[in-house]
């Protein structure tokens, strides 16, 4: 009994300094919280929480994202940078780091007041048991020049029975402002002994400072937890609490041990929380101070174990248990590293092997090479003797990974020059780069190429273009050879003989030919009546209709182009002015020389009174001096010839009929 009294005194004495402003927290072992007020969690970031239940606070609820005014509160998961003109802190999440978790944002009343009341049912507590009461508080005012002299929160916690009997009180002192980028939450707490009679316990929080300017705070995570003697644990040996690391499919085999001093004849119960469990569960039959963990072919995850201890005076009341810190067994997956199947370098360049992500490394390779570095330099002057397989062993969390990379040392790139070439418009040429040790080709520009990344692309440029190819290999990316070739594109010959035109017999006219293309000669056929058949615009003195063809010929093998033009030569008419239709076989008809050169001509003959006596188209049958089958009287007649061609004017005159 003396030992029990001594140990109890040692872990309680820390809490027995009334009026202290330091946080008073349990230095023994805590039980599961019987009260854990977190103010809840929203579904999305920035969501505003619902008001607290009636009777918890005398402050007015305000659903605003920047907290309320004096005498108001909000439940928020975060606050922005501009709240209260930027004088309040930016808070990105609640004190636990949950971005959706709520905290109580308080803008204090003008006068000191009791702002928070929480009643704990007596049936949740163990009688005559030491409990830790704790809450996390943050002064949300920024320490700025304009906030100097503002009020600082000063909170008194009072833990009472319903009849007003004070079980314990505690004062935080003034909670200072700061301007740290990360909010400096602080836990304030005290301990108390629960009533023997099982009555309820009421927690009251009073803000002793005035509001108006300052005295603004955030409150989070209020807990009541039983506090008992320190429980010590370990793997096989007390104090050996370091996490145990294993690899997937390992067989777990550990003995867990525990001890405590303070509870005589305590009840023990080991618990586990493994592979994603969210709550602790009792292990059936594990009720001694040791437990043997046996798990064959363990899967990846965290395996946690702890022991709960219950005083014999509270036997059967599991809510009065205190718990050890958990012992952790980690099971890790085998590490993987995407080691390249090949590692390349260039003759004379450094050879560097690369890996990361492990706790330790071991490289082995040709020439008895070994290294414990993650990315060792094998040599600064590589040659072919360094080629071969290099094996890597990475260990992460005690789990090994093996991989191999094949080192290839490349010789430097060589390439022969390219020649300039010429092609005809619309043609193509295929390059062929003669090189050694080359793996990469890049052509500039890519216009007109079927590929720009091979050694032998086909080029079909529309205009003369100079192409450049850069040649390298994967091992020597900084060593590039280049070659150029100018592809001259000759324009194809194009002939245009011009439009059809007409001329009068006995005159001259110029042909209007045009030619284009590179390296060409021009000439006309036939050369008849032309003063210079090689000129694009020769003069013609043709005496009859004729068609000329212009030839434009490439002298560099790009073909020949032809174009033709028709020249209409108007023949002069030979018109006699007298004929004698007397059937003597001489001048019996009115003949017109060359009239057959105008096949569409219309000939009309009129007597002196204006009556038409003859009409003919094309004049296939000359006028024989008759009118409607009867002989026309001798005399003077008048004719009109309408050529019906181009812009030729009508021709008129007289003819004398003699009998």
List the helices and strands and how they pair.
Blueprint (H helix, E strand, L loop, with lengths): L1 H11 L16 E2 L4 E3 L22 E2 L10 E5 L26 E5 L5 E8 L9 E10 L14 E7 L5 E9 L11 E8 L7 E7 L8 E13 L2 E5 L8 E4 L4 E9 L6 E8 L6 E2 L7 E6 L5 E10 L11 E2 L3 E6 L9 E5 L4 E2 L7 E6 L3 E3 L5 E3 L8 E9 L2 E12 L3 E2 L5 E4 L4 E2 L4 E2 L3 E5 L13 E2 L5 E8 L8 E10 L3 E3 L4 E4 L4 E2 L3 E3 L3 E6 L13 E2 L5 E9 L5 E11 L3 E2 L2 E2 L12 E2 L8 E5 L5 E6 L8 E2 L2 E2 L3 E8 L8 E7 L2
Parallel strand pairs: 3-4, 14-21, 22-28, 30-36, 38-44, 46-53
Antiparallel strand pairs: 1-12, 2-12, 4-5, 5-12, 6-11, 7-10, 7-12, 8-9, 8-11, 13-15, 15-18, 16-17, 16-19, 19-20, 19-21, 23-26, 24-25, 24-27, 27-28, 29-32, 31-34, 33-35, 35-36, 37-40, 39-42, 41-43, 43-44, 45-47, 48-49, 48-52, 50-51, 52-53
Mind explaining what this structure looks like?
- The chain folds into six domains: 2-228, Sandwich (Jelly Rolls), CATH 2.60.120; 231-332, Sandwich (Immunoglobulin-like), CATH 2.60.40; 342-410, Immunoglobulins (Immunoglobulin-like, Sandwich); 414-489, Immunoglobulin-like; 494-570, Sandwich (Immunoglobulin-like), CATH 2.60.40; 574-657, Immunoglobulin-like (Sandwich).
- The chain is elongated, with a radius of gyration of 57 Å.
- It is 2% helix and 43% strand.
- The protein has one helix and 53 strands.
- It has 659 residues and is mostly beta strands.
- Strands 1, 2, 3, 4, 5, 7, 10 and 12 form an eight-stranded mixed β-sheet that branches.
- β50 and β51 (630-631) form a beta hairpin.
- Residues 1-22 have low confidence and may be disordered.
């Amino acid at each position: 009994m003396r030992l029990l009294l001594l140990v109890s005194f040692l872990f309680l004495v820390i809490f027995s300094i009334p009026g202290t402003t330091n946080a008073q927290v349990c230095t023994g072992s805590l039980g599961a919280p019987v009260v854990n007020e977190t103010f809840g969690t929203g579904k999305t970031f920035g969501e505003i929480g619902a008001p607290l239940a009636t009777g918890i606070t005398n402050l007015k609820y305000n659903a605003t994202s920047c907290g309320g005014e004096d005498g108001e509160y909000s439940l928020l998961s975060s606050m922005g940078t501009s709240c209260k003109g930027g004088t309040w802190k930016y808070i990105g999440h609640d004190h636990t780091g949950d971005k959706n978790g709520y905290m109580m944002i308080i803008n204090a009343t003008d006068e000191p007041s009791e702002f928070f009341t929480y009643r704990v049912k007596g049936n949740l507590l163990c009688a005559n048991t030491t409990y830790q009461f704790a809450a996390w508080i943050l002064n949300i005012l920024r320490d700025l020049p304009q906030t100097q002299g503002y009020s600082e929160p000063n909170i008194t916690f009072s833990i009472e029975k319903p009849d007003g009997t004070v079980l314990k009180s505690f004062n935080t002192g003034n909670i200072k402002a700061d301007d740290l980028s990360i909010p400096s939450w602080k836990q304030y707490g005290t301990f108390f002994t629960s009533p023997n009679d099982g009555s309820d316990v009421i927690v009251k929080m009073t803000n002793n400072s005035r509001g108006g300017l300052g005295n603004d705070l955030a409150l989070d995570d209020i807990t009541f937890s039983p506090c008992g003697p320190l429980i010590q644990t370990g793997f096989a040996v007390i104090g050996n609490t370091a996490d145990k690391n294993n690899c997937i499919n390992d067989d777990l085999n550990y003995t867990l041990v525990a001890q405590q001093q303070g509870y005589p004849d305590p009840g023990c119960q080991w618990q586990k929380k493994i592979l994603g469990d969210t709550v602790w569960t009792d292990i059936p039959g594990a009720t001694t101070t040791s437990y043997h963990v046996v798990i064959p072919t363990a899967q990846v995850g965290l395996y946690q174990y702890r022991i709960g201890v219950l005083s014999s005076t509270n036997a059967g009341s599991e809510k009065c248990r205190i718990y050890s810190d958990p012992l952790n067994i980690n099971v890790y997956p085998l590490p993987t590293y995407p080691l390249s199947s090949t590692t390349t370098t260039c003759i004379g360049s450094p050879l560097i092997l690369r890996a990361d992500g492990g706790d330790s490394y071991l490289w082995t390779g040709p020439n008895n090479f070994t290294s414990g570095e993650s990315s060792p330099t094998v040599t600064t002057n590589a040659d072919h003797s360094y080629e071969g397989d290099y094996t890597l062993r990475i260990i992460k969390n005690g789990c090994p990974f093996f991989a191999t990379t094949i080192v290839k040392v490349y010789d430097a790139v060589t390439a022969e020059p390219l020649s300039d070439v010429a092609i005809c418009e619309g043609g193509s040429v295929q390059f062929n780069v003669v090189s050694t040790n080359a793996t990469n080709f890049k052509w500039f520009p890519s216009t007109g190429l079927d590929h720009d990344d091979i050694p032998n692309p086909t080029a079909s440029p529309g205009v003369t273009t100079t192409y450049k190819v850069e040649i390298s290999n994967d091992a020597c990316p900084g060593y590039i050879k280049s070659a150029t070739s100018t592809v001259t594109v000759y324009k194809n010959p194009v002939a245009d003989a011009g439009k059809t035109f007409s001329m009068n017999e006995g005159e001259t006219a110029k042909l209007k030919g045009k030619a284009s293309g590179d390296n060409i000669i021009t000439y006309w056929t036939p050369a008849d009546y032309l003063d210079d058949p090689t000129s694009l615009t020769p003069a013609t003195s043709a005496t009859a209709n004729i068609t000329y063809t212009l030839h434009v010929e490439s002298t560099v093998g790009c073909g020949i182009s032809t174009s033709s033009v028709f020249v209409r030569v108007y023949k002069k008419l030979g018109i006699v002015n007298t004929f004698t239709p007397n059937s003597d076989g001489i001048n019996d008809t009115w003949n017109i020389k060359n009239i057959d050169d105008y096949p569409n001509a219309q000939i009309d003959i009129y007597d002196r009174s204006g009556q038409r006596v003859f009409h003919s188209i094309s004049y296939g049958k000359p006028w024989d001096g008759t009118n409607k089958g009867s002989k026309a009287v001798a005399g003077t007649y008048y004719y009109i010839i309408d050529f019906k061609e181009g812009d030729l004017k009508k021709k008129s005159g007289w003819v004398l009929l003699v009998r």
